[in-house]
Amino acid sequence: MKKYFSFFRLRLVTGLQYRTAALTGVITQFFWGFMNIMVFHAFYKADPSAYPMTMEATAAYVWLQQAFLSFFGAWIEGEILYTISSGDLAYELCRPIHIYDMWFARSVASRLSKAILRCVPILVVAVFLPRGYGLGLPVSFPAFLCFLVSLTMGLLVMVALNMLVYGSCLYTISADGMRVLFASLSDFLAGQVIPLPFFPEKVQRILELNPWASMGNVPFRIYGGDLAGSEMLQAMVLQALWLVILAAAGRLLFAGGEKRTVIQGG
Amino acid sequence: MNMKTKKVSGLKLYFHYLSIIFRSAMQYKASFWIMTVGHFFVSFNVFLGVFFMFQRFSHVEGFTYNEILLCFSIMLMEFTLAEILGRGFDTFPSMIRQGTFDRVLLRPRSAILQVLGSKFELARLGRVLQSIVMLGYGMTHVEVRWTAAKLVTLFFMLVGGVGLFSALFLIYAALSFFTLEGLEFMNLFTHGASEYGKYPFGVYGRKMLLLVTIVIPYALVQYYPLLYLLDRRSDPFYIFLPLLALWFLLPAYGLWRFGVRKYKSSGS
How far is B148 from chain A (nearest CA, A)? Predict the structure, then answer.
């Protein structure tokens, strides 16, 4: 466990070095969030009765989404893919560790380090925006705790899903196509394009079951009170379930992949 | 000097560059098609977002679904065409870092032409195709009679929009003379603008509309001529408004010239 923790720490410290990149990222995300909220307001004004959430909950959703973009953004670490395609994987295999666990720890750390740098300024500014535009306080203290738990699980589900992509690269080596498809598919299914409650009810029912809905969708809606009571508990259990399933599938994939790995010269 | 070595025209040279890039891309056919499909899906997501929003709402700021599609498709087409043409500027920061720009400066041709000709991504045509389909659908489904004046307006919107986005790409490239790396927030003005430009800029409130009219004139190639297309305005002045957005090329070109003059090789 200790060795994985040091991989985690190493990656975290490296990630925290990119402060200028984080600053421009914050400006970009802030603007995105603002434009998004303006669109939702326009739709709200057009027909308040058709609007599926409260405006406060929508604003909270948008700001949390921007603040924790690096938790749930669909990117795939180029470095890990490069390790596979360049053959550096051979060195990793020599180490007395599980590759799956190491890459898992590493991916969590790199997402976490990006979020640490970016979320604070975004959240602080968003809190001071007027009601309906900014980020209000969580609906209750228990809801806030659930939000934290669910946020953590969401991050782990995202990384577990990432690991499946890396795992499949052990078989296919090249990943360009997978990468683009994975990115666009998951953005949509995860409710990054529009939050899941905005979909027609039947579509929403189906979408809520898929693993992508177990990422940002659950914590962001808990925070604003859109998801509460038994519905919330159900969603959180589903998150845990997906985490177990995806992690198990990933380990299996890696176990097979490591055995048949071919190192391409080098 | 032998007369036979007379200068080929800039345009001819540009097309020569393109044909080289095209032939080399065609060596990797599978990769090309996968990327085309990928790019298609990236903007298809945005479309699906709009589609599902309008399953729930019938209009926004007085614009119907078909009218929004029209707006979205024009903006997407403007941006994608500019992106295909100006892709060289998009990857320009790496040209600076690797020092290949020194080579460009040594050749007796315009630097802009050479940078433009250095990259050309046909895979993005997937997106142009999508915008053409949406445009066709939008044009035939909005309750508007298409007159010659409106078609001219549409054409001017494309010209103005491609010009505006190209200017923004040029600024992005010029800034890297000073920073040596690409600035992420510039994405906001190119890719970002094309994405939130799917809705007419009036949706974002009066202040934002003012900003995108005066500072970076997106509204001149989107909101105002759209009002004319949809019969909300009838003043023929609106037909030529998109061309006014081309003023933005001037400061962009100025910044580029300034950057070239200040350029110091990174030495790699």
Answer: 33
